[in-house]
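Q: My labmate handed me this sequence with no annotations at all. I'd like to see what the chain might look like in three dimensions before we decide whether it's worth expressing. Could you predict it?
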Amino acid sequence: MGCTSCATGANGQPRGCKNNGTCGSDGCNKLTVFDWLSNMSLPGNTEPFKGVEVRFKNGRKHFYRNSENLSLSIGDVVATEASPGHDIGIVTLTGELVRVQMKKKKQPLNSEELPKIYRKASQKDIDIWQKVRNKEESVQKQSREIAMAQGLQMKISDVEFQGDGSKVIFYYTAEERVDFRQLIKDFARAFSTRIEMKQVGFRQEAARLGGVGSCGRELCCSTWLTDFRSVNTSAARYQQLSLNPQKLAGQCGKLKCCLNYELDTYLEALEEFPRTDVKIFTEKGKAQCQKIDIFKGLMWFSYEHEGMHWHELKVERVNEIVALNKKGKKPASLEEFLEEKHIPDTALFNDVVGQDSLTRFDKPKRRRNKRKNKKRNRNRNQNRNA
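A: Here is what I predict for the chain of 386 residues:
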C-alpha cells in the first residue's frame, strides 16, 4: 500500500483507506499492470494509441477511447461513457501497452468502436462517487434480507454502484437457475435506482472479495491472476499429492489454481518414468510398483509374495528391466539392479538440540533428602554463630 491514506496511523497501527483496492493514487490497486513501454519513445510520424484501460471496483476493467486527446496518466480519475449516464473509474494503463492488452484479451483494436472518456473527474463527480460507494455495504445487507425473505437460493456477494449513482449492479452466485423478476422489482422499490443482476462463478466471487490463502499470501485471483483455467484432480495425482479436499480446495470451494503452476514440469519429468501400473517379470517372481519419487528419480517395487519388502530402483534400471521383458527375457531378480549406498555414521543421527539430551524431559526429577538438607542448614547456622 503506497498511498498516503494507507500509511501508518496512531500508535503504529495501520490506518487503512477502506477503499478495498480502489484508492485514487493507484498505490494499492488489484490486478495492476506494469507499463514496461513507458520509457520508450514512439517512432517518428506515429500517433500514440488512443485506447485507455480504466479500472472500476475490484478487478473490473474496460477499455475506452480518448477521443478528446486528454493528457491522462496512471492514477487519474476519469468520467467514462456508460448506459445510462456516466461512470467513474481510475486509469490503470495508457499508451501502446493498451494495444497489447487488447490483443491479448481479443478485443477489437479499432479504437473508434470503444466507448469514450468524457473528461477528467471533477471534485463534484468524486464527491458523488464516494457518497454512493459508502452506501454499498448497507445496500448489500438490505438486499440479502430481501432475497432471504423471498426464499431464493442465491448469495449476493458484492454490490457496485455506478459513478453517478444512476445504476447499481448486484453480483450473486447460485448453483441453480434463479427467478429474480420479483426480486428486481423489490430492489427498485427499495433503492429507487436502476437494477442490474450479474451472476458470477465461485472463483470470480473469491477474486472480487479477496482474502489470504493457506500459503499465507493474498489470493492469486485477486492480485494478479486474470484467467481461470479448469483444474482437475489428475493434476494432484501427477504431483503425488494426497486427495484431501480440505487441503486441495481454496476459499472458493474449488480446486486451487496453483495446482496447475508446476504441472507441466511434473509431466515433463514423468516422461522418463514407466507407467505406475507396469509390472516387471523376473525369474524370482512378478513385481509391481509401490511408490515413486519424481525429484530423486527413484521407484520402489515389491514381489507379489513379499508385499512388505520394497526394493529401491533407479528409473534407468527399471527401464532396462522393462526393455528386457519386451524382448521376452527375464532377469534373475531385482536384487541384481540394487545399488549399495554407503551412509556415514554421522549422517545417521544428528543432535539438533546440541549438547543436551533428547530424553532429558523423560527423566523424573530427583527429590532431595530432607535429612541432608536439615543437617546442612544446621551446620551453616553453627558456622555463622562461631
